Structures are given as C-alpha cells and as structure tokens.
Amino acid sequence: MSYLGVGVSPGNVAVSHSSSTTNLKVIDRRVKVAELVLRFLICGLGLAAALLVATDTQVKEIFMVKKKAKFTDMKALVFLVIVNGIAAAYSLLQALRCVVSMIKGIVLFSKPLAWMIFSADQVVAYVAVAEVGAAAQSAALAKLGQSELQWMKICNMYDKFCTQVGEGIAISVLVGLSTILISCISAFNLFRLYGGGKNQSSSRW
Questions:
Q1: Which of 26-40, 121-135, 145-159 has the highest average model confidence (pLDDT)?
Q2: Taking the CA atoms of the chain, what radius of gyration do you get in angstroms?
Q3: Residue 65 DSSP one-character state
Q4: In 47-123, beta strands by DSSP E
Q5: 67 beta partners
Q6: Cα 142 to Cα 151: distance, rounded to the nearest angstrom
Q7: Whole-angstrom Cα distance, residue 103 to residue 99?
Q8: Which whole-number Å values give the CA distances from 147 to 63, 158, 159, 166, 183, in the listed order?
Q9: What whole-number distance in Å separates Cα of residue 4 and Cα of residue 166?
C-alpha cells in the first residue's frame, strides 16, 4: 500500500507509541534503581549517625567531682539524633515503596502522589542540612572554645566524646548530601509528568 505526500502509516504510529512507552519504563526503572540505592544509603547512614551520637558518653573527674558528658547536654546533638532517626525511618518506607513498584513494574503517573513524595523529600533534605549546620557549629565551639565569652575548650577534657560526635557529624554530612540527591530525583519524577507526549495508559501508582 502506498501513501501520497508526507504522512505516517497507522502501523508506524503503533510501533512508535510502543517504543515511547518502553523507553519511558526503562528510564523510570533506572531512576528507581538510583533512588532505591540512595534511600537505603540514607537509612543505613542515618541510623549509624544517630546511634553513634546517642550512645556516646564519657566520664571525667573534675575537682573531685565526676562529670558525665552525653549528647543530651547539647540541644544541637539531640536535634541531630532525632533528625537522623526520622530520615532513616522515612527513607526505609520510601525504599520499600520503590521495591514494590519495581517488582510490579509500576510507573509513577499520579501527580498528587508525586507532589507528596517531592514535598516530603524537600522537607527531609532541608532539615537534614540544617541539623548538620547546627551540630557542626556546636562542635566547633566545643573544640575551639570562645575566649571572648570565656567558654572553655570542652574537647580538651572529653576527647573521646568529641571524637565520636565528630564521626556522627561526618556521617550526617553524607546523609544530608544524599537527601539533596533524592530531592533532585523526586523533582525529576514530578516534573516529567508535566511534559508533553507521554503515554499514561500504563500501570499507575
């Protein structure tokens, strides 16, 4: 059968349509794999950071009086433990969602759900970065002191405590960076739904 002028046969349209859907699923799967790895990474690192700081204690004898340093002595460290715990739990739930959607071959087409995930990821990222900044500032004061205010260098006395807190903060930095990457992925998953020429007749979540 021949066609006059410039046109596309119905058969070609079907093939192109099928190819577009396949490409969309391939891209979606790759993005989900990256998202899954990052979410499990956040879960593990967040839990590690929270446990490192929460279980950190050191007892020193000062003027015949025993003083115990613990994370609850600094509000910034309490904030760090809470935020990392929440980030770990949230990331685990989202990772399980990714696993289920990958097993079932579900492509995210629901805009309300995409907005919810995007918003939640943004909040977690902002809070994670904020807690790292607050903890780092408190750690710097404990390490360097503040002569103008006659604040002593606490880490000179509680060196073990400060070392473990520093490790927790370093891990929290990785958590913060990972949450930023996750928020970028969720932004991609959301705003690609507003592009043109997508087929949304596949399985939805």
A1: 121-135
A2: 25
A3: E
A4: 57-62, 65-70
A5: 60
A6: 8
A7: 6
A8: 22, 18, 19, 22, 40
A9: 74
Listed residue (155, 178, 185, 163) closest to 84, CA to CA: 178
Q: Residue type for 93, please? A: L
Encoded tokens for 94: 């989202």
Q: What pTM does this model have?
A: 0.77
With tokens 């204690």, the residue in question is 57
How far, in Å, CA of 65 to CA of 71, rounded? 20
Evaluate whether 55 touches 161 at the Cβ level (below 8 Å): no
pLDDT tens-digit readout, 111-147: 888 899 999 999 999 999 999 999 988 888 877 766 6
**Residues 138 and 77 sit within 8 Å (Cβ to Cβ):** yes
Q: Which residue has the tokens 């790759």?
A: 30
**What is the per-residue DSSP string for the chain?**
----SS---HHHHHHHHHHHHHHHHHHHHHHHHHHHHHHHHHHHHHHHHHHHHHT-EEEEEETTEEEEEEGGGSHHHHHHHHHHHHHHHHHHHHHHHHHHHHHHT-B---HHHHHHHHHHHHHHHHHHHHHHHHHHHHHHHHHH-BGGGTB--GGGT-HHHHHHHHHHHHHHHHHHHHHHHHHHHHHHHHHGGGSSS----S-B-
Query: How far is residue 35 from each of residues 53, 94, 96, measured CA to CA in Å?
Result: 27, 9, 11
Percentage, residues of the chain above pLDDT 90: 40
Amino acid in the structure at residue 34: A
- How big is the chain, counted in residues? 205
